[in-house]
């Protein structure tokens, strides 16, 4: 068991590392988020279909597919591949993620799990140092941290099973190939990320070259980013399907690049990769159905446990942002995140009491343990500065005119992953295996503690927090949401849902409203600016340790209303766009 002192030390070290990867001072994403005044945030309206994504070229490519008669899955696949080119911080083909689909056409709700897997040579102690203690240089900063990428297989599977049939994989890859081959102009938000990442990329010349000018300095705003090798890799996928990535020259180059960098992934690992179609987790909240991502994401289970606890409190009558409503939300989060740490992992390897955790009876017991006047002390709490990056993962939401909806979150883990591009592939590789627990009681880069259920193992998927979610009323989507932000993803999705369903907020205001976060350990409440001072004082009086700021998230969401679609690109980050038609 790892002591709290060691946990605190590692949490601080992780924060220092992640902070070093953050955007430079002055970049908007580094500024603390200040919610815009009420009445100044407006949703973007559309009648027939919409894509809300973190980068505008990718969003518009998806909307264009909708315009051409594609369904939400076609659009999501096109956007997913496009963002691998235009949003290399997190859009990817070298990482993995999750897609939750409401298919009105097939009367089906489904989850596509394309999470990365650990290579066959992975061992449970692979991230321990010679002293037997977790070594974060191995799990976050080395080629050992690279999981077998799932994105190509996952997007191809989604298209094959749930696409409209109007578009081939090659059709949907075409815009991404052109953008990689001909390049695109770098916007300010991306330009601001590159100097901070330069040292990390510089470890591998093939990586550094892509994002540098001829003089070796980082590309800047208005420079053109051309990714010829990535165009060739995407073309191989267009020509051969996923085999063009998982077998043959691309796979061999990926395996060689990873091996040369000290990793253990082989061409066989790539060839063996399989995405999985899973039943989403499903629950209810005040008459709405919530469908979200099952394990190996913790997102859906923690979200539903939290909502079930809150359902027994009169949230609608409690004033939004009041100390009373925030107190019960914090206490619910604390309990659900504790269960995450104790029980959840890859369902193909461990058996977790998921049904119990999501049951109304269990929530009633959890609710009964909440003292309305006092914070439940959970541990001898360390305080630390949170990881501030929010661009490590990216979420997009899609709705089409036929009632289909897609909620997709995918990631490289850290911004630009581990920073390695295998020579000749153009593929930025992830460092997702840091989401495993290096040793029982150890924490990952987001400070999330884990135990036996989430130790590394061959072929195993690390536990995630990504929570692509769709809210249904009478079987039809009313809200599509999700977010990046590591541990903060689940609490973000929770607050967007509560703001819309309990407080009747317009989706744009629900997304813009200040958020808070508690993840059990460390035992602190992180808050964004925008909560009233006397509310925070009242929380402190109840015994909560309340700390500003909260690391950034970005809940790009869509509400489906009787008057049409309303898109909410999150105002916390530059670049997000609601592209409608
Ligand atoms: N890498 C962040 C997550 O999957 O939760």
From TrEMBL:
Keywords: Acyltransferase, Glutathione biosynthesis, Hydrolase, Signal, Transferase, Zymogen
Stored Gene3D superfamilies: 1.10.246.130, 3.60.20.40
Pfam families: G_glu_transpept
Gene Ontology biological-process entries: glutathione biosynthetic process; glutathione catabolic process
Binding, L-glutamate: 115, 411-413, 435, 464-465, 486
Record has Acyltransferase as a keyword: yes
Region of interest (Disordered), residue spans: 560-581
InterPro entries cross-referenced by the UniProt entry: GGT_bact (IPR051792), GGT_CS (IPR055262), GGT_lsub (IPR043138), GGT_peptidase (IPR000101), GGT_ssub_C (IPR043137), Ntn_hydrolases_N (IPR029055)
Gene Ontology molecular function: glutathione hydrolase activity; leukotriene C4 gamma-glutamyl transferase activity
Signal peptide residues on this chain, from the entry's feature table: 1-27
Superkingdom field: Bacteria
Pathway(s) where this gene product acts: Sulfur metabolism; glutathione metabolism
Family: Belongs to the gamma-glutamyltransferase family.
Protein name in the entry: Glutathione hydrolase proenzyme
Originating species: Bradyrhizobium sediminis
Gene encoding the protein: ggt
């Amino acid at each position: 068991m790892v002591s709290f002192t060691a946990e605190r030390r590692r949490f601080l070290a992780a924060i220092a590392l992640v902070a070093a990867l953050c955007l430079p001072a002055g970049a908007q994403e580094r500024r603390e988020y200040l919610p815009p005044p009420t009445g100044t945030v407006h949703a973007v309206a559309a009648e027939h279909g919409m894509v809300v994504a973190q980068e505008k070229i990718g969003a518009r490519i998806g909307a264009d597919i909708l315009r051409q008669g594609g369904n939400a899955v076609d659009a999501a696949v096109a956007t997913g591949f496009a963002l691998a080119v235009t949003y290399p911080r997190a859009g990817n083909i070298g990482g993995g993620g999750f897609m939750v689909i409401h298919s009105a056409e097939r009367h089906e709700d489904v989850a596509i799990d394309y999470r990365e897997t650990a290579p066959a040579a992975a061992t449970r102690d692979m991230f321990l140092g010679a002293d037997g203690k977790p070594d974060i240089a191995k799990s976050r900063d080395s080629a050992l941290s690279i999981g077998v990428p799932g994105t190509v297989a996952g997007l191809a599977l989604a298209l094959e099973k749930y696409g409209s049939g109007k578009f081939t994989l090659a059709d949907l890859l075409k815009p991404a190939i052109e953008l990689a081959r001909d390049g695109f102009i770098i916007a300010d938000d991306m330009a601001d990320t590159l100097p901070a990442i330069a040292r990390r990329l510089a470890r591998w010349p093939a990586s550094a070259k892509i994002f540098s000018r001829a003089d070796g300095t980082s590309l800047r705003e208005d420079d053109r980013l051309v990714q010829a090798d990535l165009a060739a890799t995407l073309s191989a996928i267009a020509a051969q399907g996923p085999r063009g990535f998982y077998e043959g020259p691309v796979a061999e180059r990926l395996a060689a690049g990873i091996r040369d960098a000290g990793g253990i992934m082989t061409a066989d690992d790539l060839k063996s990769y399989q995405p999985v179609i899973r039943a989403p987790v499903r629950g209810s909240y005040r008459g709405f159905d919530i469908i979200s991502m099952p394990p190996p994401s913790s997102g859906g289970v923690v979200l539903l446990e939290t909502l079930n606890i809150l359902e027994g409190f009169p949230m609608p009558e409690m004033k939004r942002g009041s100390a009373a409503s925030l107190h019960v939300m914090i206490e619910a989060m604390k309990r659900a995140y504790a269960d995450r740490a104790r029980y959840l992992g890859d369902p193909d390897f461990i058996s977790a009491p998921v049904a119990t955790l999501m049951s109304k009876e269990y929530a009633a017991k959890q609710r009964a343990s909440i003292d309305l006047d006092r914070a439940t002390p959970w541990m001898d709490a360390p305080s630390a500065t949170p990881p501030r990056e929010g661009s490590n993962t990216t979420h997009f939401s899609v709705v089409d005119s036929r009632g289909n909806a897609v909620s997709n979150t995918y990631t490289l883990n850290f911004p630009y992953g581990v920073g390695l591009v295998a020579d000749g592939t153009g593929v930025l590789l992830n460092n997702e295996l840091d989401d495993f627990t290096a040793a029982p009681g150890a924490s990952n880069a987001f400070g999330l503690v884990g135990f036996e259920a989430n130790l590394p193992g061959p072929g195993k998927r690390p536990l995630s927090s990504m929570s692509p979610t769709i809210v249904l009323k009478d079987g039809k989507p009313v809200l599509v949401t999700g977010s990046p932000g590591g541990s903060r993803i689940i609490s973000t999705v929770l607050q967007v849902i509560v703001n819309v369903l309990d407080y009747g907020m317009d989706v744009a205001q629900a997304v813009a409203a200040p958020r808070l976060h508690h993840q059990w350990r460390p035992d602190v409440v992180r808050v964004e600016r925008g909560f009233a001072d006397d509310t925070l004082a009242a929380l402190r009086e109840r015994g909560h340790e309340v700390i500003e700021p909260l690391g950034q998230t970005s809940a790009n969401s869509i509400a489906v209303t009787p008057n049409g679609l309303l898109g909410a690109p999150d105002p916390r980050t530059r670049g997000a766009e609601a592209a409608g038609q």
